[in-house]
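anyone else get weird line breaks when pasting these?? whatever heres mine. first is seq + tokens for prot A
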Amino acid sequence: MQKRYRNILTRGAKQLPPIPLRQNGKRGRVAKSDAHNLWERLKKHETAVLLFARLSYVPFTNNRAERDLRMSKVKQKVSGCFRTRKHAEAYCRISSYLQTMANQGYNPLVAIQMAFSGQLYADRGE
């Protein structure tokens, strides 16, 4: 798998547009094309890119983690901030519980009913 990946990168390098020369009087890095930047990242992070192909339990993207954080950032954006640390911690605890239950396939209303009845997690008979 790694040999094939490197072969693809080698063929891709030949297709990249040339990097423009530094203009006189200009400082900083020379701007490269999006394709060249992507190629460099794929080459630099080869192990991480191929990890999902080697291990079936590794997700292809980190979208799940980003989605889990999104609601707290939206809440923070809408309200401006949490008034106290205690309220922020309470929000995070409730949100985390609901997300965990949703990830396990529970309806949020059922999860809330379970929490109020003192049954944080349902007995699945396992």
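and prot B, same format (seq, then tokens)
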Amino acid sequence: MSDLAWVPQSCTLPTEERPLRVAEWDALFAKWLTGVARPQSLTLRLELEDGPGVTDQVRDLAEREGGCCSFFTFAVAPGESGIRLDISVDHVHEPVLDALAVWAGTQVPR
């Protein structure tokens, strides 16, 4: 996602590092993402295929993302056929979650 206008001002990741972080998410999505769901308005669920080191990669990326964007809450757990990553926000940051859902949705293989 090249247009990062949706990134809120509360994100503390330096601006020049944001494209690199997006590239990390893109790479994760491209290789492992199998599904996107919205079980609640403030929660986005990503289903990822499991593989060697994938859970650790997801946990690491989620931890680093939570470090700069404290409005996100991440939960990594076994999913139906792999790994489930739930991403939650408060009402103020729902538009950020909406943008993330659209972005992730474009990465799911059809």
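btw re prot B: Strands lie at 33-40, 43-49, 73-78, 82-88. The mean pLDDT is 88.
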